[in-house]
Design brief:
This protein is mostly beta strands and 123 residues long. The protein has no helices and eleven strands. The strands form two sheets. Strands 2, 4, 5, 6, 9, 10 and 11 form a seven-stranded mixed sheet that branches. The chain has a four-stranded antiparallel sheet with strand order 1-3-8-7, with no helix packed on it. Strand 4 and strand 5 form a beta hairpin.
Length: 123
Amino acid sequence: QVQLVESGGGLVQAGGSLRLSCAASGRTSSTYVIGWFRRAPGQEREFVAGIHWSGGTTVYADPVKGRFTISRDNAKNTVYLQMNSLKPEDTAVYYCAARSSGVVILTTRYDYWGQGTQVTVSS
């Protein structure tokens, strides 16, 4: 089992920045990928960004490319999502997820999920 705890959400004005953190514990040695997803009110959950835990390969969804950066600190078992130039349409609950069943990043087949953290961007 892998446990994930997100933090860093909040309220920010358009154009501002936030950094989300995802702290992993448990069987992190079996984790290949950490991803960030988000769900806006009334919408389906969507992939935001992902990173290979060991090699550091990253993948981003088109709406966040150039604005968001995912990174990891293996010593702290933590993955970060730096979000810059935030827009009102980035408002959502952000979830981090871990994948132990494969190495593909851009997929919905993640095995473990955090509880989510709310990000609200005001116009």
